[in-house]
Predict the structure.
Amino acid sequence: MNVQKLYSGTDLTNRILTNKKLLRGLERISEHGVSFTNTASLLMTVGLRPLAIHFTPDTEKENKQYAMSNSIGSGIIKFALVESVALPLETLIKHIDKNPDKFLKPETIKNLKGDAKELLNSRSYRLFTQTIKLGAGVLTAIPKSILTVALIPIIMDKIFSNKKETPIQTQAKSKVSPNRFDLLKDKNIFFTGAITDKMTKGIGKIIDNKKLQNWMIRNEKYDNDIAKHITAGTDILLTATTCQQTAQSKKIKENRKKALIYNNIISTGATLGGGYLVDKLIKSKTQNFVEKFKVLNINDPKVMKYIEGINILRPAIIFAGIYYGILPIFSTYLSEKIDKHIK
Protein backbone atom coordinates (compact mmCIF):
# COMPACT_ATOMS: atom_id res chain seq x y z
CA MET A 1 0.00 0.00 0.00
CA ASN A 2 1.24 3.50 -0.84
CA VAL A 3 1.77 5.14 2.55
CA GLN A 4 1.73 8.65 1.08
CA LYS A 5 -1.62 7.92 -0.54
CA LEU A 6 -2.92 6.64 2.81
CA TYR A 7 -2.16 10.02 4.37
CA SER A 8 -3.23 12.14 1.40
CA GLY A 9 -6.33 14.29 1.45
CA THR A 10 -7.59 17.80 2.03
CA ASP A 11 -8.89 17.38 5.57
CA LEU A 12 -8.12 19.97 8.24
CA THR A 13 -5.40 17.86 9.90
CA ASN A 14 -3.45 17.51 6.67
CA ARG A 15 -3.67 21.23 5.97
CA ILE A 16 -2.42 22.04 9.47
CA LEU A 17 0.51 19.61 9.23
CA THR A 18 1.65 21.17 5.94
CA ASN A 19 0.97 24.77 6.95
CA LYS A 20 3.94 26.97 5.98
CA LYS A 21 3.81 29.01 9.19
CA LEU A 22 3.82 25.85 11.31
CA LEU A 23 6.77 24.43 9.36
CA ARG A 24 8.68 27.69 9.64
CA GLY A 25 7.99 27.75 13.38
CA LEU A 26 9.29 24.20 13.82
CA GLU A 27 12.37 25.05 11.78
CA ARG A 28 13.11 28.03 14.02
CA ILE A 29 12.64 25.89 17.13
CA SER A 30 15.11 23.39 15.66
CA GLU A 31 17.65 26.14 14.93
CA HIS A 32 17.09 28.02 18.19
CA GLY A 33 15.91 25.28 20.53
CA VAL A 34 17.75 26.64 23.56
CA SER A 35 16.48 30.17 23.00
CA PHE A 36 12.93 28.89 22.55
CA THR A 37 12.88 26.90 25.79
CA ASN A 38 14.77 29.67 27.59
CA THR A 39 12.25 32.34 26.57
CA ALA A 40 9.31 30.12 27.51
CA SER A 41 11.02 29.40 30.84
CA LEU A 42 11.47 33.13 31.53
CA LEU A 43 7.78 33.85 30.95
CA MET A 44 6.78 30.97 33.21
CA THR A 45 9.23 31.73 36.04
CA VAL A 46 8.22 35.38 36.36
CA GLY A 47 4.52 34.77 35.71
CA LEU A 48 2.78 31.43 36.12
CA ARG A 49 5.03 29.86 38.78
CA PRO A 50 4.99 32.82 41.24
CA LEU A 51 1.23 33.04 40.79
CA ALA A 52 0.81 29.33 41.58
CA ILE A 53 3.04 29.68 44.65
CA HIS A 54 1.07 32.73 45.79
CA PHE A 55 -2.14 30.69 45.93
CA THR A 56 -0.60 27.77 47.83
CA PRO A 57 -2.92 27.09 50.78
CA ASP A 58 -1.91 26.68 54.43
CA THR A 59 1.65 27.96 53.90
CA GLU A 60 3.48 30.76 55.67
CA LYS A 61 3.55 34.00 53.70
CA GLU A 62 7.31 34.49 53.99
CA ASN A 63 8.07 30.96 52.76
CA LYS A 64 5.93 31.69 49.72
CA GLN A 65 7.72 34.99 49.17
CA TYR A 66 11.13 33.28 49.25
CA ALA A 67 9.90 30.63 46.79
CA MET A 68 8.54 33.33 44.47
CA SER A 69 11.79 35.30 44.70
CA ASN A 70 13.72 32.15 43.85
CA SER A 71 11.53 31.58 40.80
CA ILE A 72 11.79 35.17 39.53
CA GLY A 73 15.53 35.38 40.14
CA SER A 74 16.11 32.01 38.52
CA GLY A 75 14.19 32.99 35.40
CA ILE A 76 15.95 36.32 34.92
CA ILE A 77 19.48 35.01 35.53
CA LYS A 78 18.94 31.88 33.46
CA PHE A 79 17.64 33.86 30.51
CA ALA A 80 20.52 36.35 30.57
CA LEU A 81 23.30 33.78 31.02
CA VAL A 82 22.02 31.07 28.70
CA GLU A 83 21.20 33.51 25.90
CA SER A 84 24.68 35.01 26.10
CA VAL A 85 26.07 31.56 25.23
CA ALA A 86 23.19 30.00 23.27
CA LEU A 87 22.68 32.74 20.67
CA PRO A 88 26.30 32.69 19.45
CA LEU A 89 26.34 28.87 19.35
CA GLU A 90 23.02 28.69 17.47
CA THR A 91 24.22 31.30 14.98
CA LEU A 92 27.49 29.48 14.32
CA ILE A 93 25.81 26.08 13.92
CA LYS A 94 23.39 27.67 11.44
CA HIS A 95 26.37 28.80 9.33
CA ILE A 96 27.66 25.22 9.27
CA ASP A 97 24.18 23.94 8.33
CA LYS A 98 24.08 26.28 5.34
CA ASN A 99 27.63 25.65 4.14
CA PRO A 100 29.08 22.42 5.60
CA ASP A 101 31.70 22.10 2.83
CA LYS A 102 33.27 25.36 3.97
CA PHE A 103 33.55 24.56 7.66
CA LEU A 104 33.84 20.76 7.85
CA LYS A 105 36.34 18.30 6.44
CA PRO A 106 35.08 16.11 3.54
CA GLU A 107 35.68 12.96 5.61
CA THR A 108 33.61 14.45 8.48
CA ILE A 109 30.67 15.07 6.15
CA LYS A 110 30.96 11.56 4.71
CA ASN A 111 31.25 9.96 8.14
CA LEU A 112 28.31 11.77 9.73
CA LYS A 113 26.13 11.70 6.62
CA GLY A 114 25.98 7.91 6.56
CA ASP A 115 23.02 6.69 4.51
CA ALA A 116 21.21 10.05 4.56
CA LYS A 117 20.88 11.98 1.30
CA GLU A 118 21.70 15.27 2.99
CA LEU A 119 23.92 16.02 5.98
CA LEU A 120 21.09 17.95 7.66
CA ASN A 121 18.95 14.79 7.58
CA SER A 122 21.64 12.69 9.26
CA ARG A 123 20.71 11.56 12.77
CA SER A 124 24.37 11.63 13.85
CA TYR A 125 24.84 15.20 12.66
CA ARG A 126 21.59 16.35 14.30
CA LEU A 127 22.63 14.71 17.58
CA PHE A 128 26.05 16.38 17.37
CA THR A 129 24.78 19.91 16.66
CA GLN A 130 21.93 19.75 19.19
CA THR A 131 24.37 18.56 21.86
CA ILE A 132 26.62 21.56 21.17
CA LYS A 133 23.72 24.03 21.26
CA LEU A 134 22.11 22.54 24.35
CA GLY A 135 25.48 22.59 26.06
CA ALA A 136 24.85 26.30 26.73
CA GLY A 137 22.57 25.34 29.60
CA VAL A 138 25.18 23.06 31.15
CA LEU A 139 27.97 25.64 30.80
CA THR A 140 25.95 28.30 32.60
CA ALA A 141 24.31 26.08 35.25
CA ILE A 142 26.68 26.74 38.15
CA PRO A 143 27.08 30.53 37.69
CA LYS A 144 23.33 30.76 37.15
CA SER A 145 22.63 29.05 40.48
CA ILE A 146 25.13 31.24 42.33
CA LEU A 147 23.66 34.45 40.91
CA THR A 148 20.07 33.27 41.50
CA VAL A 149 20.67 32.72 45.22
CA ALA A 150 22.44 36.09 45.43
CA LEU A 151 19.44 37.73 43.78
CA ILE A 152 16.81 36.23 46.14
CA PRO A 153 17.32 38.70 49.05
CA ILE A 154 17.37 41.61 46.57
CA ILE A 155 14.02 40.55 45.09
CA MET A 156 12.64 40.01 48.59
CA ASP A 157 13.65 43.55 49.47
CA LYS A 158 12.47 45.20 46.24
CA ILE A 159 9.23 43.30 45.57
CA PHE A 160 7.98 41.90 48.87
CA SER A 161 9.26 44.59 51.22
CA ASN A 162 6.79 47.08 52.67
CA LYS A 163 9.29 49.93 52.24
CA LYS A 164 8.07 52.79 50.10
CA GLU A 165 10.37 54.46 47.61
CA THR A 166 11.19 58.11 47.98
CA PRO A 167 10.27 60.49 45.13
CA ILE A 168 13.99 60.76 44.31
CA GLN A 169 14.30 56.95 43.87
CA THR A 170 11.21 56.83 41.67
CA GLN A 171 12.50 59.71 39.54
CA ALA A 172 15.90 58.01 39.13
CA LYS A 173 14.25 54.80 37.86
CA SER A 174 12.17 56.71 35.34
CA LYS A 175 15.37 58.05 33.74
CA VAL A 176 16.66 54.61 32.81
CA SER A 177 16.60 54.30 29.05
CA PRO A 178 14.02 51.74 27.85
CA ASN A 179 16.19 51.07 24.78
CA ARG A 180 19.30 49.82 26.59
CA PHE A 181 18.76 46.29 25.22
CA ASP A 182 18.29 47.36 21.61
CA LEU A 183 21.47 45.52 20.60
CA LEU A 184 19.74 42.22 21.35
CA LYS A 185 17.24 42.85 18.56
CA ASP A 186 19.94 42.00 16.02
CA LYS A 187 21.12 38.57 17.06
CA ASN A 188 23.89 38.54 14.46
CA ILE A 189 25.42 41.90 15.38
CA PHE A 190 28.68 40.34 16.53
CA PHE A 191 28.79 37.63 13.88
CA THR A 192 29.72 39.08 10.55
CA GLY A 193 32.52 38.58 8.05
CA ALA A 194 35.87 37.21 9.15
CA ILE A 195 34.87 36.95 12.83
CA THR A 196 31.96 34.68 11.92
CA ASP A 197 34.10 32.42 9.78
CA LYS A 198 36.81 32.12 12.43
CA MET A 199 34.37 31.26 15.21
CA THR A 200 32.39 28.89 12.98
CA LYS A 201 35.59 27.08 12.03
CA GLY A 202 36.24 26.65 15.75
CA ILE A 203 32.92 24.80 16.09
CA GLY A 204 33.74 22.91 12.91
CA LYS A 205 36.95 21.59 14.51
CA ILE A 206 34.88 20.13 17.34
CA ILE A 207 32.63 18.36 14.83
CA ASP A 208 35.73 17.21 12.89
CA ASN A 209 36.94 15.31 15.96
CA LYS A 210 36.93 11.65 14.94
CA LYS A 211 36.30 10.25 18.44
CA LEU A 212 33.31 12.54 18.99
CA GLN A 213 31.92 11.65 15.56
CA ASN A 214 32.11 7.93 16.31
CA TRP A 215 30.40 8.46 19.68
CA MET A 216 27.57 10.38 17.99
CA ILE A 217 27.18 7.67 15.35
CA ARG A 218 27.00 4.95 18.01
CA ASN A 219 24.37 6.90 19.93
CA GLU A 220 22.42 8.44 17.05
CA LYS A 221 19.28 6.61 18.19
CA TYR A 222 19.05 9.19 20.99
CA ASP A 223 18.75 12.14 18.60
CA ASN A 224 15.01 12.42 19.32
CA ASP A 225 15.58 12.60 23.08
CA ILE A 226 18.80 14.60 23.40
CA ALA A 227 16.95 17.82 24.34
CA LYS A 228 15.12 16.01 27.13
CA HIS A 229 18.22 14.30 28.53
CA ILE A 230 20.46 17.38 28.55
CA THR A 231 17.66 19.48 30.08
CA ALA A 232 17.28 16.89 32.86
CA GLY A 233 21.01 16.79 33.53
CA THR A 234 21.19 20.57 33.59
CA ASP A 235 18.27 20.77 36.04
CA ILE A 236 19.95 18.33 38.41
CA LEU A 237 23.18 20.36 38.32
CA LEU A 238 21.22 23.59 38.82
CA THR A 239 19.31 22.22 41.79
CA ALA A 240 22.39 20.79 43.50
CA THR A 241 24.28 24.08 43.16
CA THR A 242 21.27 26.18 44.19
CA CYS A 243 20.74 24.11 47.35
CA GLN A 244 24.40 24.39 48.28
CA GLN A 245 24.43 28.17 47.70
CA THR A 246 21.18 28.60 49.64
CA ALA A 247 22.62 26.73 52.64
CA GLN A 248 25.74 28.93 52.59
CA SER A 249 23.99 32.26 51.97
CA LYS A 250 24.33 34.83 54.73
CA LYS A 251 21.52 37.01 53.39
CA ILE A 252 18.72 34.43 53.44
CA LYS A 253 17.11 33.93 56.84
CA GLU A 254 18.27 30.74 58.52
CA ASN A 255 14.71 29.67 59.40
CA ARG A 256 13.71 29.89 55.71
CA LYS A 257 16.66 28.10 54.11
CA LYS A 258 15.56 24.48 54.58
CA ALA A 259 12.04 25.06 53.25
CA LEU A 260 13.57 26.72 50.17
CA ILE A 261 16.04 23.85 49.69
CA TYR A 262 13.31 21.20 50.07
CA ASN A 263 11.17 23.16 47.60
CA ASN A 264 13.92 23.03 44.95
CA ILE A 265 14.62 19.32 45.48
CA ILE A 266 10.93 18.32 45.41
CA SER A 267 10.25 20.48 42.34
CA THR A 268 13.16 19.09 40.33
CA GLY A 269 12.65 15.46 41.39
CA ALA A 270 8.93 15.44 40.71
CA THR A 271 9.32 17.34 37.43
CA LEU A 272 11.91 14.95 36.03
CA GLY A 273 10.11 11.83 37.24
CA GLY A 274 6.70 12.99 36.05
CA GLY A 275 8.08 14.59 32.91
CA TYR A 276 9.85 11.44 31.73
CA LEU A 277 6.77 9.32 32.44
CA VAL A 278 4.36 11.66 30.63
CA ASP A 279 6.78 12.15 27.72
CA LYS A 280 7.11 8.38 27.31
CA LEU A 281 3.33 7.93 27.24
CA ILE A 282 2.78 10.81 24.83
CA LYS A 283 5.67 9.80 22.59
CA SER A 284 4.33 6.27 22.17
CA LYS A 285 0.83 7.58 21.46
CA THR A 286 1.96 10.20 18.93
CA GLN A 287 4.30 8.05 16.85
CA ASN A 288 1.66 7.72 14.12
CA PHE A 289 1.24 11.50 14.14
CA VAL A 290 4.99 12.00 13.54
CA GLU A 291 5.00 9.42 10.76
CA LYS A 292 2.04 11.10 9.11
CA PHE A 293 3.75 14.48 9.42
CA LYS A 294 6.90 13.05 7.83
CA VAL A 295 4.99 11.51 4.91
CA LEU A 296 2.94 14.65 4.23
CA ASN A 297 6.14 16.73 4.04
CA ILE A 298 8.30 14.02 2.45
CA ASN A 299 9.34 16.23 -0.48
CA ASP A 300 10.46 19.08 1.75
CA PRO A 301 14.27 18.95 2.21
CA LYS A 302 13.86 20.38 5.72
CA VAL A 303 11.47 17.70 6.96
CA MET A 304 13.99 16.32 9.48
CA LYS A 305 14.53 19.81 10.87
CA TYR A 306 10.77 20.07 11.44
CA ILE A 307 10.77 16.75 13.30
CA GLU A 308 13.74 17.92 15.34
CA GLY A 309 11.65 20.96 16.27
CA ILE A 310 8.79 18.68 17.35
CA ASN A 311 11.21 16.66 19.52
CA ILE A 312 12.34 19.87 21.24
CA LEU A 313 8.83 21.28 21.59
CA ARG A 314 7.21 18.16 23.08
CA PRO A 315 9.33 17.73 26.23
CA ALA A 316 9.58 21.51 26.67
CA ILE A 317 5.79 21.79 26.97
CA ILE A 318 5.55 18.74 29.25
CA PHE A 319 8.32 19.80 31.65
CA ALA A 320 7.10 23.41 31.70
CA GLY A 321 3.52 22.38 32.40
CA ILE A 322 4.57 20.20 35.33
CA TYR A 323 7.27 22.45 36.80
CA TYR A 324 5.62 25.83 36.40
CA GLY A 325 1.92 25.01 36.58
CA ILE A 326 1.22 21.90 38.64
CA LEU A 327 4.15 21.49 41.02
CA PRO A 328 4.65 24.94 42.63
CA ILE A 329 1.64 24.58 44.92
CA PHE A 330 2.52 21.00 45.84
CA SER A 331 6.27 21.61 46.40
CA THR A 332 5.79 24.86 48.36
CA TYR A 333 3.21 23.27 50.64
CA LEU A 334 5.12 20.00 51.13
CA SER A 335 8.54 21.64 51.69
CA GLU A 336 7.15 23.71 54.55
CA LYS A 337 5.50 20.66 56.15
CA ILE A 338 8.75 18.67 55.89
CA ASP A 339 10.71 21.54 57.43
CA LYS A 340 8.28 21.85 60.33
CA HIS A 341 8.18 18.07 60.85
CA ILE A 342 11.99 17.86 61.05
CA LYS A 343 12.11 20.80 63.45
